[in-house]
Each structure stands twice: as structure tokens, then as C-alpha cells.
Amino acid sequence: MLIAVLFTKPINGATSWFDIGSFSFQPGEFAKVFVILFLAYIITKVQIRGKDEINRPTRLLILLAALGLPVLLIIKQPDYGTAAAFMVAIAMMLITAGLDKRYIIGCVILIVIAIPIAYNFILPEHAKQRIDIFLNPESDPRGAGYNIIQSKLAVGAGGLTGMGLLKGNQTQLGFLYPKTTDFIFAVIGEEMGFIVAVSVIILYVFLIVKSLYVAKTAKDSVGSLIATGITGIFLFHMVENIGMVMGLLPITGVPLPFISYGGSSLITNFICVGILLNISSKRQKTIFVK
Q1: Interatomic CA distance for residues 195 and 256, integer angstroms
Q2: What is the dihedral of CA 90, 82, 236, 137, to 10 degrees?
Q3: Cβ atoms of residues 178 and 253 within 8 Å
Q4: Is the pLDDT of residue 288 over 50?
Q5: What is the pTM of this model?
């Protein structure tokens, strides 16, 4: 599906959706579940001979090569936000599997070196423009910087208790787009205020902490790896969406879990929660039997 979607008609510059009449879906969202399950499977196969097998360069290269294809296909769409979510989930799963510190330090150094190279020679112009606008949105207030400026105005205008449902100036008068997907948190901040916005963040933190607890107390290593990967997806989406709305991170078009409009994202999130509950229930049954 990730290959076939590249031949569909672009929507907002990205070939990320299949349109079937009035129905559309985004295969990149469902790929999150498959990649996490597949990675957990191959890690456990690699570690059959021992936990340290994952730190053998040949084994690690096999893992990264197997995951490189879906990530590259998503970048090709282009959908850098979803690709970044994959990378965060993969990194967390590898660390959980016992990845040696020297690889982690090496990756950090490589990223630091690669960022300026990617910016100057690899990234397309629209991606470079997003970074430039993130650093200085006032440089193009009527163009590329418009949305982030309006988003920050909306969040700030909400004050403590908000302007009231459907009464936000920026969000209801058409100054902020798209308000139902990428910038939904700005709507919450403007119309419901600081108290509700912080409550939403607290709920996400609770979800992430509980997901990590499920990973820590899972019955086996497979369950732990899967739960960690799902935690990485939730963590990235929460931090990136809320961060970009407040101007703290670049805009990537990442939906806010369970809140942003979009059926593919919502179904995928429900599947992830269902898997977490399944892992948790097996843990609880084991404890009960003992």
C-alpha cells in the first residue's frame, strides 16, 4: 500500500491517501502498527541466541535494513512527520531490547553531523522553508509563517478559561487553517483556555506513563517491545503537535492523537490502545494465577 499510494493524486502536495469515492484512508497510519509488530518479531528472533545478539553489527544492520523500506516510502510521499514517528518508536524499541550505549552515542553524533548536511544538500525547498519559518516566523508573516503566528495568537488569546466554545476569533473566523487537524490544540487553547489545555496535556502524560508501565511489566519481551513502540508513537505525536502549535517545534502535519480529525489516525490509535490492553491483561492474568 505504501508503494501504491505514491501513484495517487497529490493532496496538499503529498501522495498519502487512497480516495475511494467518499471514503479515504492513509496507509502510513496503519503501517505504524505493522512496523512495530514486525520489529518486535525480528528482534526476538535475533535474540534467541542471547540478549547481546542485537549489538552485533550484522544483526543490527539487518534490523535497520528491514525497517528502512517503509520509512523511505513514507519520506517519498512526502510525510516527514510520520517518518519521524517511526524513527522515535524504532529507537525506543532498540533501546528496550538492550542496544549498546556506543551505538546510541554514535547515532547522536551522526545526527548532529547530518543535520547541517541534510539541510544544505538533501532536504527539498519546502522542508527547508519550514525550518526557516520555525526559527523566524515573522520573516514571512503573510506567507509560510502565517499559520504559526495565528496559532500562537489563538493559544495566547484563550487566557485562563478561554473565549467560549465556537467563539474563538482566530479559529472561527477563518484565520487559522487547518483547525480540525494540525492546529486542533490551538482551538482548545483559544476556546477553552489554559485550564483545559493543560488538562489535555496531563491526560496524554498519563497515557504515556501507563503505556510505559505496561511495557515494563509485560509478560515477555515481545509484549515489552510492542508496548514501548506504541509509547514512542504516542509520545512523538503529542510532543510534536502541541510543540508546533505553540511555536516550539517545526510544523510537520502530525495529528494530535484521539482529537485531530481523521479516521485513519483514530482507528490506528484505537488499535494501539487495544494492543496495550491485550498485553496488560496477559500480565494481570499471570499475576492472578500466581
Answers
A1: 18
A2: 140
A3: no
A4: no
A5: 0.87
